[in-house]
Amino acid sequence: MDDLLIRGGLVVDGTGVPGRPADVVVSGERITTVESSWRGDARRTIDARDRIVAPGFIDIHTHSDFTLPVNPRAESKVRQGVTTEVVGNCGFSAAPVLPGMAAMLGDYLAASAPALTFRETTFARYLDEFPPTAVNTIMQVGHNTLRLMTMGMDRRAPTRSERAHMEALLIEALEAGAMGLSSGLFTAPGSYAEPDEIVGLARVLARHEARYASHVRDEADGVFDAVREAIAVAEATGVHVQIGHLKLSGTAGWGGAAKLLGEIDAARRRGVPVDCDQYPYDTATNPLRNLLPSWVQEGGLPAMLERLAQPAIRARIRADVARSGLNNFGAIPSWDAVRIAVSPTLPDEAGQTIGVLARRRGVDPLDVVSDVVVADRGATRILITSMAEADVDAITGAPWVLVGSDENAREAHGVTGRGKPHPRAYGTFARVLGRCVRERGLLTLPQAIFKMTGGAAAALGLTDRGVLAPGAWADITIFDPLTIADQATYDDPHRYAAGVSTVVVNGTVVIDGGAHTGALPGRVLRFRGGAAA
Ligand SMILES: [Zn+2]
Question: 88-117: string of b/e by CB count within 10 Å (b at 16+)?
């Protein structure tokens, strides 16, 4: 007898084709049958009438490696229907950590991973010790982490032996099962790397049939050149390139989405292996210190704090920002576009804008920024509304742009439920299906599901996830197309999405009648030769 029968739903199978009425049968960890009016029995039957039955969603760009060890139930994600998360993005990974380097990496990631304890580890040991979680995880090693382990926050090119050291650490991670390398070229120390440093590492990726994901060098005035740099890595090495959280940040570039999408689409049509993903919000989130010019962080934390105490340096920062906008984000309409998200020194100001804080204190907004960075050694995180809604909609509406939350698996209680982080942690996938499909008609439902499932699986080289078909892993999401919606807002972010009734991961029910069962059936998907083992 089979284990699970999902009966009477409208199956949207993840390939992009229209839905069809069918039953889905699961035995063990795999789907055995997808056919209408299946005649047979199973240990458990789930009634899916009036619901969509889809492959589990793949969140192709996340930072849940920073929270899954403390929130293994992956509440905010799995309640949206997410069954697989790609972690280690934007150049940040929690491994490897060389002897004596744990505190330095912890300081560096204080505004991103406040809940995580950093320990000395190899990448292999990190994967071996990764805890059981509700969702599957795909691991990447971060270029910023490799550079920190090799040359700290030095603002220069690596020597020949430093390059060899980074390559050796990369190979160790790939041999342990990492899918590939991520970069964060927007912020120090990734921003100190010239393009040839990345191409050199991508040649190592090519030899291992591994992949490359990039938070590109500039998402504001230089976004076209930055996207071209990423595409050039794919052209030079043949490595698949994933451009993370595609956006046009800063008022000067608003309105450019169609042109930017056109460039990437043209590369894809030439056969260049490049994909991109997006979260459907006009607001980004980042450590506050990353709004400052990247030279401020040169040499590491003590050097940064010493610099920010000097009036002359603050004047130089002011001049830089006046000339070229905020690092990575460009020009913003006002300092009321930046609000405190999570802050150890200003916990009661979560949600408050830098503009309000500056007026209240009677000082320049850049002095508020510098003072806060100094007060908590760079650990404050902010939200920044830096995109135009029309650009966001245009990118969401492109059927080939995949969906990535760029956020952590959080829960409404406990250490990951503090402050006012970006609501995309709780809402991304439900927002695409509710707001973007049902309310605004930016996409059809099969198109949107393809972006979250079959399209993402193809970009990752997964052949047996992301589709509902006999033989595939039983990652399944059942939702009501009339009620699925994001409920998390900037003011009230810790709210789970509505409308998802059942989520199955590797054949085990994790969300049952909208409630978490506590099951942790996720696996770390280890990659070898370009495929998940
Ligand atoms: Zn990023």
Answer: bbbbbbbbbbbeebbebbbbbbbbbbbebe
